[in-house]
Amino acid sequence: MELMERKFFFVWNMDKEKIYLEEMARKGYALTDVKLFKYYFKKIDPIDYVYEFDFQYLFSMSEEDYLSFFEDWELVKRFGLWYYFRRIRTNTAKDSIYSDNESKSNMYKGILLFLVLTGLPLYIQLPIFIPQFLEITGTFADYYRYFRYILFIITPIHFMVSISMLITYKGYKKRIKE
Fold first, then answer.
1. Which of the listed residues 73, 95, 117 is the one where a domain comes to its end?
2. Are 32 and 81 in the same domain?
3. Which domain holds residue 85?
4. What is the pLDDT of residue 137?
5. Both 77 and 150 in a single domain?
6. 150 in the same domain as 85
7. What is the number of structural domains in the chain?
8. Pair 68, 112 in one domain
9. Distance in angstroms (rounded) separating the CA atoms of residues 109 and 112
């Protein structure tokens, strides 16, 4: 039996998403597919899976070589730049794909770099759009005005996510120094 649930998890909710997927496995539903805010499950016997996620934005190796690092893990799905892994819980250090705080901080560093690269076009347009925000008229201009409204909604959200990831990254870097 297939089950689809809509859930809203964002990058700063990774721990909540992980807990949700593990609870679903204990209820007898294994993750089979991930789409934007949609999770697909198949009915199984209840099992204690542990789920982990990894974010890869720039490959310095082939995907096959990358996946060989996770030979003890089952790749459930690749969704965009995210990889969803799972394995049966052993209550050992092997229940995490991150061996230490440094490897976890490197993932957050990758997310930050990705956010900076995707945010540059947003931030570069702000000085251009702010002075002209209400001055343009005409049919094309109306479309352009809506584009600017969308820009003014997305940019602060992007900025808040970036700050959240920066704080998380700094927290892991601080733990490494201790």
1. 95
2. yes
3. 2-95
4. 55
5. no
6. no
7. 2
8. no
9. 5
Predicted pLDDT of residue 103: 82
Q: How confident is the model at residue 136 (pLDDT cuts 50, 70, 90)?
A: low
Q: What percent of the chain has pLDDT over 90?
A: 35
Q: What is the pTM of this model?
A: 0.79
Q: List beta partners, residue 50.
A: 87
Domain match, 87 and 131 both = no
Q: For 35-93, how does the pLDDT look when each residue is reduced to its tens digit (9 = 90+)?
A: 999 999 999 999 999 999 998 876 677 888 888 888 899 999 999 889 999 999 999 88
Residue 123 is encoded by which pair of tokens?
């931030």
* DSSP per-residue codes, the chain: -EEEEE----GGGHHHHHHHHHHHHHTTEEEEEEETTEEEEEE-S---EEEEEEE-SS-SS-HHHHHHTTTTSEEEEEETTEEEEEEE--SSGGG-S--SHHHHHHHHHHHHHHHHHHHHHHHHHHHHHTTTTTT--SHHHHHHHHHHHHHHHHHHHHHHHHHHHHHHHHHHHHHHH-
Structural tokens at position 43: 């009915």
* Residues 23 and 88 reside in one and the same domain: yes
Question: Same structural domain for residues 34 and 108?
Answer: no
Contact of 97 with 52, CB cutoff 8 Å: yes
